[in-house]
Amino acid sequence: MEGKEGRLRGNSRESRLSRRQKLVLAAVAAVLIIVLIVGLGLGLGLKNRGGGGGDDDSLPPAPQPTAIWQPKVNTSWQIILNAKLDIDPNNPVVEPDVDVYDIDMFMHQNSRAVSSLHKLNKKVICYFSAGSYEKNRPDSSKFPEEDIGLVLDGWPDERWLNISSPAIREIMVGRIEIASRMGCDAVDPDNVDGYQNENGMDLTPEDSVSFMTFLADEAHKRNMAIGLKNAGDIVKTMLPRMQFAVNEECAEFNDCRTFSQFVDAGKPVFHIEYPEGAPFNTNAEQKQAYCNAPGANGFSTILKGMNLNFGAEYCDGRQVRTKVLRRFSSG
């Protein structure tokens, strides 16, 4: 009997242990399910943060351009680099009613601004700095310290880059790819004229030609146009590869004839001047001088404040205020 009872007690303990294991396993499974649900909820919550205007990090790639856009001379435009457009994707309206908007790429990366402008038959140029390091950009951690040079004069938060570095070029390919996924019609790579400045990298005009050729090839692979920003010394060399120019202050420095080569080739010059009081209190005499500068005939001229915010004045006297969601300090 003892043996039998012992065996029975043993069987009972085994049965109880088996049930206990099942309970433990069930509890662990329940905890895992809760953790997964909470984790997914937090992830979605974080993804859906970020201001108004239809921001959404999970936006699918936008329709890509099917051919490289070639804008015409006298194409009208607005440029806003220091604020985010406030445009309703469901019922888009934008002021002014111009052909082209040049906007900061990163600031609009997770919004529907590009597709909204396309609904209004606007072309979109996406701006990013190709030749300078900005510490507040999403990819700033990727820049090797050895490829970062001196501070830009007047822009204490930016530093010149070694544009010949393979690492820098790889980062810029990533930026062009972002513009492509956004559906941008063109890119506006800034600060490609480091050779004209104290840069700490011994940059030359040949470096800029090589860099802009590289960027043009990458943009064109994705059916996007590209413009030359300033860099007057390389206009003649780069003109065949560029679809437009973006120039700042050629009237101020009596250098518009350099960029008129674009107009002669049937390509626009998107021209910005920064007169005192612009965009809403520009001196009439100064405006006249900027709008009729020697060599600037046919330029798409716009008068802006140096912060390139929401306001603009045109040579025909129009003053406009584009609706924006947020305004940011310069730099």
Automatic annotation (TrEMBL):
Sections of the chain in a coiled coil: none
TM annotation in the entry: 23-46
Reaction(s) catalysed (UniProt annotation): Hydrolysis of terminal, non-reducing alpha-D-galactose residues in alpha-D-galactosides, including galactose oligosaccharides, galactomannans and galactolipids
InterPro entries from the UniProt entry: Aldolase_TIM (IPR013785), GH (IPR017853), GH114_TIM-barrel (IPR004352)
Keywords from the UniProt entry: Membrane, Transmembrane, Transmembrane helix
Domain Glycoside-hydrolase family GH114 TIM-barrel per the UniProt entry, residue ranges: 76-308
Enzyme Commission (EC) number: 3.2.1.22
Pfam assignment, any one: Glyco_hydro_114
Top-rank lineage group of the source organism: Eukaryota
PANTHER family: ALPHA-1,4 POLYGALACTOSAMINIDASE, PUTATIVE (AFU_ORTHOLOGUE AFUA_3G07890)-RELATED, ALPHA-GALACTOSIDASE
Name this polypeptide is given: alpha-galactosidase
Native species: Podospora pseudopauciseta
